[in-house]
Amino acid sequence: SSFIVGHLCSALDIIRTIRDPEKPNTLEELEVVTENCVEVQEIGEDEYLVIIRFTPTVPHCSLATLIGLCLRVKLQRCLPFRHKLEIYITEGTHSTEEDINKQINDKERVAAAMENPNLREIVEQCVTEPD
Fold this sequence. Notes:
The protein is an alpha+beta fold.
C-alpha cells in the first residue's frame, strides 16, 4: 500500500544521515545502509514492523553493535508512526552477527548501553543531524 511505501521512505530518510562513529561519512555514503536495507510490514491497525538490515564496512567491525544502537535510537525517536523495530546485520557480513543481532534487539541490553554516558555521547553525535 502507499502507507508502506511512505513508511519505507521515512525510515530510510531517518537512517541515511546517521554518521559513522569513526568516520565523517554517513552510513549511506559508506553503504552500511542502502535503499534495499529497509523492510516494512503491517502488523496491526496502524502499526508496522520495521526491519533494518545493515552491512558493516568490515566483517570484524568492532563498531557494528554501536551502529545498530544508533539505528535503533534514531528510528525510535523519529519514526512518525507506531512501530516495532528489528535490526539485523546483513547475513554473512560480520563474524559475530548472531551475538550482535541478539544484543541490538534486546530492550534491556539497549537500555543498559544507553545508560553508559560515554556510549550515549557517541550515539548522540552519530544521530544528531548536522546543522
